Amino acid sequence: MLAGPPSQIARRVENLDRARRFWRDTLGLTELYSFPGLAFFDLGPTRLMLRETGTRNEADLLYLPTQDIVGTHAALGQRGAQLTGTPHMIHRHPDGAEEWMAFFKDDEGRDLALHSVRQP
After folding, report:
1. How far apart, in whole angstroms, are the C-alpha atoms of residue 120 and residue 118?
2. pLDDT > 90? residue 2
3. Order of all β-strands in the sheet with 8-13
């Protein structure tokens, strides 16, 4: 039976060097290793694989977790990320926990999101 979060997520990128700088320097993710045409980043229990295609493709939206959505959002803006909205609550659970999101663009203009759960 399957259990736990995905072990790896793949994302196609047009230019691997540019994407590596964005994910490492702008987002602050740890680059684990790379090979020609591939780079791997640490997303906690999940690994992100960037695969260079030479073309700009659509990509599914990735929701990146953070404890401090307001502070992380501000830091990304200071590092040059293109912010497309401010942090906002999207849902309040019956126990009072709040789900928050904030959206921004990757180095190819595709959507990414910060996600945070605030406990009461």
Report:
1. 7
2. no
3. 8-13, 46-52, 38-43, 31-35
Measured between alpha carbons, how far is residue 24 from residues 18, 29, 50, 72, 119 in Å?
Answer: 10, 5, 12, 15, 29
- Cα angle 86, 91, 95 (rounded to 5 degrees) comes to 130
Q: Residue 32 above 80 pLDDT?
A: yes
Q: What's the full length of the chain, in residues?
A: 120
Same domain, 70 and 51: no
The pLDDT value given to residue 5: 82
Quick one: 49 and 70 in the same domain? no
Own/partner pairs, 28-36, CB within 8 angstroms, 24+ separation: 28/75, 28/79
58-98 per-position pLDDT tens digit: 998 999 999 999 999 999 999 999 999 999 999 999 999 99
At 67, the amino acid letter reads Q
pLDDT at 1 over 80: no
Q: Give yes or no: residues 48 and 91 share one domain.
A: no
Output the six-digit token pair for 92: 């309040």
